[in-house]
Amino acid sequence: MPQPGQTGSPENSTATPTRRELRAQREAGETPEVSTEPAEQKAAPAVSVAPDAARAAARPMAAQPVTPTPAATRPPPSKRNSPLTVAVTLLAIPGLFLTAALPAYAFTPGEGLVGARTAHQRASAEAQDVTVAAGSASISVARDGFSATTTAQLAERERAAAAAAAEKAADAARATTAAYAVYGIRADGDDYPWAGKTSGLSPLGYVYGQCVDFVAWRLNRDAGVTGGNWRWTWSNLTPGGGDASQWANAWSGHGWATGNKPVVGAVAWFNYNHVAYVQSVSAGGSVVLEEYNWMGSSAYHTRTVPASEVPLFLYPPT
């Protein structure tokens, strides 16, 4: 009984043919049947073979004449692609993908993307609709109901307010003057108690014979004090300084009234460092002044001047 693996055995009779056998069969025009089933499943039952038959099978087969295969039955030779074909293919394939990936709209100059709304179109589409009532169309804005105050009008208002304040202060000064003018309107006359003295300080704190000392004396006299415990002295009348040029600031610092209308008993203040006493006021607007040291004389003097020539009247202190 033949052994497995020997020629003529059932296992070898169903084994896969070698490359040489396949080439010989292809040249002979035969197509071998190759089984894809496992050899174990195709194995036929063991068959007893005579030794002579085995030896005959083991002898090589006589060479058979090879019949050439007609050209019509030969497989066509493989065609190799040229480098140019490969390059064109490599460029065409990405182009196909890019074409497929393009959006479904095109660009139109001046109109943006066809099929895509611009920002203005989107804003218009998202805006809320507003319905205006028919009656609102008849509403009109009146522009003649508003007015602005001009600079000239503001200045006029300020002047009017200042004039009213000055008039009020003058009325208060007149009342005060009436209270102080205990001697009434006096005739011209030198009643200065220290006449002739021109140096040193008087009991009122000013230099003898100066305009300020004479006016301070008249203010004390109108207040009813002619000696002893003086009502008005340098310390409480003009504590900032004794010069006549400082009297206006002293009145302002005390809060005492001043103005441009003359009042009997008031102080006529001049900006050239001089003061005088208002003795009387005429109906025509002129004033009679009494003064000391006019033009540096250190003596008593009187004169009549228009009230407009007096820069400021300092009304009697309170």
Automatic annotation (TrEMBL):
<feature type="compositionally biased region" description="Low complexity">
    <location>
        <begin position="43"/>
        <end position="72"/>
    </location>
</feature>
<feature type="compositionally biased region" description="Basic and acidic residues">
    <location>
        <begin position="18"/>
        <end position="29"/>
    </location>
</feature>
<protein>
    <submittedName>
        <fullName>CHAP domain-containing protein</fullName>
    </submittedName>
</protein>
<feature type="compositionally biased region" description="Polar residues">
    <location>
        <begin position="1"/>
        <end position="17"/>
    </location>
</feature>
<feature type="region of interest" description="Disordered">
    <location>
        <begin position="1"/>
        <end position="81"/>
    </location>
</feature>
<dbReference type="InterPro" id="IPR038765">
    <property type="entry name" value="Papain-like_cys_pep_sf"/>
</dbReference>
<dbReference type="Pfam" id="PF05257">
    <property type="entry name" value="CHAP"/>
</dbReference>
<dbReference type="InterPro" id="IPR009148">
    <property type="entry name" value="PcsB-like"/>
</dbReference>
<dbReference type="InterPro" id="IPR007921">
    <property type="entry name" value="CHAP_dom"/>
</dbReference>
